[in-house]
Write a structure and sequence with these properties.
By secondary structure, the chain is α/β, with parallel strands linked by helices. The protein is built from 11 helices and 9 strands. The chain has one domain: Alpha/Beta hydrolase fold, catalytic domain (Rossmann fold, 3-Layer(aba) Sandwich). Helices cover about 35% and strands about 15% of the residues. A 9-stranded mixed beta sheet has the order 1-9-8-7-6-4-5-3-2, sandwiched between helices. This is AB hydrolase-1 domain-containing protein.
């Protein structure tokens, strides 16, 4: 059984009605392109003092995934929310689906080098968490601590014995395909609502922003490739990794696994299992789905700060 991270005191979330728009939440942050040796990376950056913290989104996502987290975290860290390679407005050329996670990892290392850091803190959500596993296995010396948020769909054990999640994930492929091939407000909204435990927690401005990003021709071409839509088979490459379950037994970075109570497809016991496999701490978010950083931002910010500064 994994150790559970404990906060020093409980967190009271601000009412959702008091959360600002994405633009308001990111006021004072800098959006810029960082030119690496091989690729360019779009980042939203905040903070000047403190250790570097890189934050990577899920598949099909973009840096604004962390709009409600950057300013609070910037009080303790120099935070970079990043458009992953092949996503958003970062470099997109050269995607090889069977090697997607290795290529994403190469992009992270390229960015760390371009920023001039020897090592960093890392937070990854969903695809970003799976990417974090790849990084910890192949580049452990570059990461001081990690927070992995609702990943570990890869190299998974027989799911027999795990509790059934409160919401299924079987329609993710269909929702993703429609959002990319027909990026209407309705289709984008349906895909984004999959991420949260209650539909009313996804805002109109996030839907509008993602529709704008998905409607960009270059972004759309890349996402069709990321989701393998031109071949008509969503998902098989998402489960291909260049490591084995045994590789996880020699895990090095100190790590926290976080998981939403209503995460679609995989319940809390599944997340806690993976935390135990890699010797990580575990933190469950009550009343949250796949995006606890969005639904429970004050608690999420407190959890990351507690773990990364202890």
């Amino acid at each position: 059984m994994a150790r559970h991270l404990q906060l020093k005191e409980p967190v009271t979330e601000r009412p959702y009605a008091e959360w600002g728009t994405i633009a308001a939440e990111l006021a004072g942050c800098q959006v810029r392109f960082v030119e690496g040796r091989r690729w360019h990376h779009r980042v939203i950056e905040a903070g000047s003092d403190g250790p570097p913290l890189l934050m990577y989104h899920g598949i099909g996502g973009h840096a604004e995934t962390f709009a409600r987290n950057l300013r609070a975290l910037s009080e303790h860290f120099h935070v970079y929310a990043v458009d992953a390679r092949f996503h958003g407005f970062s470099s997109k050329a050269g995607l090889d689906l069977p090697r997607m996670y290795d290529q994403l990892a190469d992009g992270v290392i390229d960015l760390i080098d371009a920023l001039g850091h020897r090592s960093v803190f890392y937070e990854g959500e969903s695809m970003g968490a799976q990417l974090g596993v790849n990084l910890a296995v192949h580049h452990p010396e570059r990461f001081d601590r990690m927070v992995l948020n609702a990943g570990f769909y890869l190299n998974r054990p027989d799911r027999a014995g795990f509790a059934t999640a409160t919401r299924g994930a079987s329609n993710l492929g269909q929702l993703s395909a429609l959002a990319v091939t027909e990026p209407t407000v309705e289709n984008i909204g349906n895909r984004l609502q999959w991420l949260v435990s209650r539909p009313d927690r996804m805002t109109d401005d996030m839907v509008s922003l993602r529709q704008r990003i998905y409607s960009d021709p270059e972004v759309n071409r890349s996402l069709r490739r990321v989701f393998n839509l031109d071949e008509g088979t969503f998902g098989p490459h998402l489960y291909e990794q260049s490591y084995t379950h045994d590789d996880l037994k020699s895990w090095r970075p100190e790590t926290l696994v976080v998981w939403g109570e209503h995460n679609p497809g995989h319940g809390l016991d599944y997340g806690e299992y993976w935390a135990d496999v890699i010797g990580a701490d575990f933190y469950p978010f009550a009343d949250a789905g796949h995006w606890p950083q969005w639904e429970k931002p004050d608690e999420f910010n407190a959890v990351l700060t507690r773990f990364l500064t202890r």
